[in-house]
Amino acid sequence: MHPMLNIAVRAARSAGNIIVRSFEQVDKVEVESKGSNDFVTNVDKLAEQAIVDAIQKAYPTHSIIGEEFGVVQGSDDDYQWIIDPLDGTTNFVKGIPHFAVSIALKVKGKLDQAVVFDPIRGELFTASRGKGAQLNGFRIRVKQNKELTGAVLATGFPFKQKHHMASYMNMFQALFMKTADMRRAGSAALDLAYVAAGRVDGFFELGLKPWDTAAGELLVIEAGGLVTDFVGGHNHTKSGNIVASSPRVLKEMLKDMRPHLGDALSK
Ligand code: 2AM
Ligand code: CA
Ligand code: CA
Ligand code: CA
Questions:
Q1: What is the 67 CA–ligand 4 centroid distance (Å)?
Q2: Where does Mg(2+) bind (predicted)?
């Protein structure tokens, strides 16, 4: 295992331990609101601190960007960690055991290492650039479906951008009519990991942040899938509008979504 992936795994496991311990008594966890429908807890922050500590202990010069603490600038700009200590906080606070720790490393702007860890199931998804993707050490691959018919897609609702709900519903409908079913499980990082593992056939969501998708994106790519924005380009890191699937299904998804995008989502 790449030494930096090894550190990422260690960091994810220590965050996972904090999260699982608190989840056992989740009724006692204090929930703050970061704005409407946006929860955060002390556990998010403790988990992020554990990850930052693990990275800084091993690589004191690296930069880190995390959901809760923002940018921790290091002296070395070539190495940037992108972390979401708890992806699926809404599930966590509701007592639904489906959430993950997401840690990615970019080297000179390119995704290089990725970990998505589901601490409840003990599922560790990892990828290193050019080396494939694994689940608990076993190789995983994106399902190479040729069409949407029979597919199950994961998605997320635009909880923060409710002004996009109408467009979203139109896209949802266009895709839903062709697929077997849809899943809205509540963790974008796990949605992407599940695409990588072939558990779902594709994923789309709008308005996500870099820490939601960075690790999952590398998992999907290393597992033989594609990740694009809503028009097949590579603006998804900026726009947060993301589609992931096998090359052929992704192409069909984009075609079906296209009539419903409007100007705002054409990126
Ligand atoms: P978070 O738990 O780290 O905030 C799924 O739609 C994604 O959106 C998740 O990865 C989740 O990341 C984020 N999210 C933030 N607030 C949400 C909410 N109220 N409902 C669902 N997802 C939310
Ligand atoms: Ca959050
Ligand atoms: Ca998140
Ligand atoms: Ca989070």
A1: 6
A2: 67, 84, 86-87, 212
| pLDDT higher than 90, residue 169 | yes
Whether the pLDDT of residue 264 is over 90: the answer is: no
- Which residue's CA is the closest to the ligand 1 atom numbered 17? 38
In the structure encoding, which two tokens stand for residue 45, read together? 């922050």
Ligand located closest to 86 CA = 4
Give me ligand 2 centre to Cα 149, in Å: 33
Ligand 1 pocket by C-beta < 6 Å: which residues? 37-38, 67, 84, 87-90, 156, 159, 186-188, 205, 212
CA distance 80 to 87: 19
- Residues 99-148: pLDDT tens digits? 999 999 999 999 999 999 999 999 999 999 999 999 999 999 999 999 99
Whole-model pTM: value is: 0.97
Residue 54's SS3 state is helix
Q: Is 112 annotated as a binding residue?
A: no
| Cα 6 versus chain centre, distance | 19
Domains of the chain, each with CATH number or no CATH: 3-140 (3.30.540.10), 152-260 (3.40.190.80)
What atom in ligand 1 is closest to the CA of residue 88?
2
Give the 3-state secondary structure percentages of the chain, helix then strand then coil, rounded to 5.
Answer: 40, 25, 35
Contact call for residues 86 and 101 (beta carbons, < 8 A): yes
